[in-house]
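Justification of resources, computational component.

The compute hours requested in this renewal are based largely on the per-chain cost of generating structure records like the one below. Each record pairs the submitted sequence with a full structure-token output. That output is archived, and it is also reused by downstream analysis tasks.
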Amino acid sequence: MIFTETTLKDAYIVEPEKHEDERGYFARAFCENEFESKGFKLHMVQSNIGFSHKGGTIRGLHYQVYPHAEVKLISCINGSIFDVIIDLRPDSPTYKQWFGIELNSKNNKMLLVPENFAHGYQSLADNTKVFYQISQFYVPDAERGVRWNDSAFNIPWPDMNHPIISDKDKRWPDFFS
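The structure output for this chain reads:
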């Protein structure tokens, strides 16, 4: 696996190393040993799939608070997304900064989202499917969110013509501090 640091401290783009032949390719999507060799002690306990019927759908920005803070490994297995993370760690040199990347079924890139980062994405194509591996179980009382259009971050979502957003995600409060 190839690990490339993003502009946010401790967040990485992860690219599987393909073993190709005339049939196609094989690649590891996750290997605890490889992540540990790069300094990440991860134990993934849950996998989720997110499906969006329409391009322009925004999901997030979500995170869980201590003691249920989670690491996520995000990949897009069908279609395309603009994946966004925000560093919400007050002692971090990249506090309140965001990073965005296109993940799709062609580039096979994944995004490693550290604990205490908000995460969300916008589907860029119809029938987009996202696969998440997560280090903590979902705990509803630990869930928090950052509103997709909060002026504290000014994220330039690619498709603002008719964004499709859940009522819950529209109601997250402004981020302060």
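The first helix runs from residue 32 to 37. The radius of gyration is 16 Å.
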